[in-house]
Amino acid sequence: MFKRMFRYYDYSIIIAILCLCAIGLVMIYSASMVTSVTRYDVPYDYFYNRQKAWLVVAFLFFFLTMILPYRIYLKIIPYGIVTIVAALIFLFVLGHTAGNAKSWFQLGPANLQPAEFAKLGITMYLAMVLSKRQEYINNFRQAFLGPIGLTLFILGLVLAQPDFGTAMLIGVIAAAVMSCSGINLKSFFKLVRFGLALVLVGLPIGKLTGYVSEERLSRFTGASDPFKHAEDAGYQLVNSYLAIGSGGVKGLGLGESIQKYGYLPESHTDFIMAVIAEELGFFGVAVVLLLLFFIVAKTLLLAKKCDDPFGSLICVGIGTMIGIQAFVNLGGLTGLIPITGVPLPFISYGGSSLVLLMISMGMVVNISMFVNYRKDKKQTNSQQQKLTATKGNSVPLNPNV
């Protein structure tokens, strides 16, 4: 059975994931070795060793989700979404505060971020619900009001931490899954109008309640004119520009970054691509971007090939999650959009993010196995039918002629 399963896996996705994880581990070692000692007062290989440990855990989950039939999650999803909601609520009581946000549970030496798992949780929940409502998917009230209500509740819990970056990602993922659920153009525009109405209502409320504060708005001024605000709001972006610019085409060489010596905050997390640009140059950045693009493209193409709406929508959500997360991270460090604190998939330091990504990609690889198996089975059945038809139409020879 296992031999037959492993025959149909898409190994190109697995190889791309392994390459990204290997690059990430090397760059975390390089980017964090100085700040580990000077800023955090820990050994120079502290973050490198922790990421190695998380990689072992992440690959165990990857292998598990890779071999488990993805439709088994239909029985687990309701319990999973309740657990995620409960964890987000309990954060306000038991959560660990860091960087003005109460987003983590501190479990001994490890930190767990429930909002990261909410991204996958909302993908799985919407895929389950909308795949079961295909018969009336264009009835907006009947098909979408319940899922939208739960999505908004989870968004509210994440925003209250506060974690605007993750909340934005959850919103985009949910919008992508709903938009690809099989709705017609009329229902799609209803979704768009509903989303715009929420934004138009939410912004004034955020301003009145103080959630949209001057500190948060300063991220926009920092992104629009970082050199004017180089001492405060634009500090990170200016140093990111310096790292990217000094790397050039070939880079300064692995381990030779200057900006990681305390000039570039969060050099091993949010701004790790700036260090890659400085040390490995254009070619290093291009390799990472091509690998990320390959994974996203393969996942979305798999969504198109999958005949099962549940599996297809899972791929849409996971492909969107990785793609939009990469865009937001790279957009922040290049000044295209305000900095939101979103890590670069598979590359940035972070246990919760890495485990979530590997679980997600394990599901994608499992779906690829079933898609390839069904395709092979159809081809085999088609060949057998042609062979049977040929035999049936053949005229037997008359031995007396």
Describe it for me?
Belongs to the SEDS family. FtsW subfamily. The chain crosses the membrane at residues 12-32, 52-69, 76-94, 114-131, 143-160, 166-185, 192-212, 280-301, 313-340, 346-371. By secondary structure, the chain is mainly alpha-helical. 71% of the residues lie in helices and 3% in strands. It has helices at 2-7, 11-38, 46-67, 73-94, 114-132, 140-159, 164-179, 185-209, 214-224, 235-247, 272-305, 309-334, 351-393, and strands at residues 96-98, 101-107, 110-112. The radius of gyration is 24 Å and the shape is globular.
The largest sheet is: 3 strands, antiparallel
Question: What's the number of structural domains?
Answer: 1
Whole-number radius of gyration? 24 Å
DSSP helix fraction: over 70%
Spell the H/E element sequence. Answer: HHHHEEEHHHHHHHHH
Task: Indicate the structural class.
Answer: mainly alpha
Share of β-strand residues:
under 5%
User: What is the residue-mean pLDDT, rounded to a whole number?
Assistant: 85
- Quickly count the helices: 13
- Residue windows where pLDDT falls under 50 for at least 5 positions: none
Choose one word for the global shape. globular
Query: Strands of the largest sheet, in order across it?
Result: 1-2-3
Report how far the terminal alpha carbons are from each other: 52 Å
Total DSSP E strands: 3
InterPro entries: Cell_cycle_FtsW-rel_CS, FtsW/RodA
Function: Peptidoglycan polymerase that is essential for cell division.
Membrane topology: Multi-pass membrane protein
Transmembrane segments: 12-32, 52-69, 76-94, 114-131, 143-160, 166-185, 192-212, 280-301, 313-340, 346-371
